[in-house]
Amino acid sequence: MDPKKKETIKEEELVESTQQTEAAQETEAPQQETPAQEEELTPEQALAKQLEEANATIEDQKDKYLRLSAEFDNYRKRTMKEKAELIKNGGEKSISSILPIIDDLERALKMMETAEDVVAVREGVVLIFNKFMGIMGQNGVQMIETAECEFDTDFHEAIATIPAPTEELKGKILDCVQTGYTLNGKVIRHAKVVVGE
């Protein structure tokens, strides 16, 4: 056989064997990397991992609970303080609206010392009274009507009964001894009345 041919055959065999070796290494390499990448956990390790995750969740929930509890406590304290402030100064608006009436009454008292006209003094007092009732009405206070009204235990308190002068006045209010008042529709003082029977 020709020596050149022998060399060519040897070179071809050498190239083939090199290619086969490289191919074998390429196929083996991924197989060797796979177990390292996909390392399976033992049951103890899996439980430890779950425990760690559960503890992290518990810590997170505990933190949220503590923050929420603190916020609610602050809210409760703030509302208690606001309620106490309302109770303490709740009548401020009403009192402020009555102050002009007190000023009018002071002026009326001074005028009464030197006034000789009783009718003028009476008219002044009536004006002050009407102004006062107007301010009370603005604050939700209303007088309970009694004149010849049917007796109603929700609004009236009978302190006496007398024979009715006519048949139509039986069960009706004949006289009001003390005026009653409502505040925003709620009775704050019953009217004391005399009822016909």
TrEMBL record:
<feature type="compositionally biased region" description="Low complexity">
    <location>
        <begin position="18"/>
        <end position="35"/>
    </location>
</feature>
<dbReference type="InterPro" id="IPR009012">
    <property type="entry name" value="GrpE_head"/>
</dbReference>
<comment type="function">
    <text>Participates actively in the response to hyperosmotic and heat shock by preventing the aggregation of stress-denatured proteins, in association with DnaK and GrpE. It is the nucleotide exchange factor for DnaK and may function as a thermosensor. Unfolded proteins bind initially to DnaJ; upon interaction with the DnaJ-bound protein, DnaK hydrolyzes its bound ATP, resulting in the formation of a stable complex. GrpE releases ADP from DnaK; ATP binding to DnaK triggers the release of the substrate protein, thus completing the reaction cycle.</text>
</comment>
<keyword id="KW-0346">Stress response</keyword>
<feature type="coiled-coil region">
    <location>
        <begin position="44"/>
        <end position="78"/>
    </location>
</feature>
<dbReference type="InterPro" id="IPR013805">
    <property type="entry name" value="GrpE_CC"/>
</dbReference>
<keyword id="KW-0963">Cytoplasm</keyword>
<keyword id="KW-0143">Chaperone</keyword>
<comment type="subunit">
    <text>Homodimer.</text>
</comment>
<dbReference type="InterPro" id="IPR000740">
    <property type="entry name" value="GrpE"/>
</dbReference>
<comment type="similarity">
    <text>Belongs to the GrpE family.</text>
</comment>
<feature type="compositionally biased region" description="Basic and acidic residues">
    <location>
        <begin position="1"/>
        <end position="12"/>
    </location>
</feature>
<feature type="region of interest" description="Disordered">
    <location>
        <begin position="1"/>
        <end position="44"/>
    </location>
</feature>
<dbReference type="Pfam" id="PF01025">
    <property type="entry name" value="GrpE"/>
</dbReference>
<protein>
    <recommendedName>
        <fullName>Protein GrpE</fullName>
    </recommendedName>
</protein>
<keyword id="KW-0175">Coiled coil</keyword>
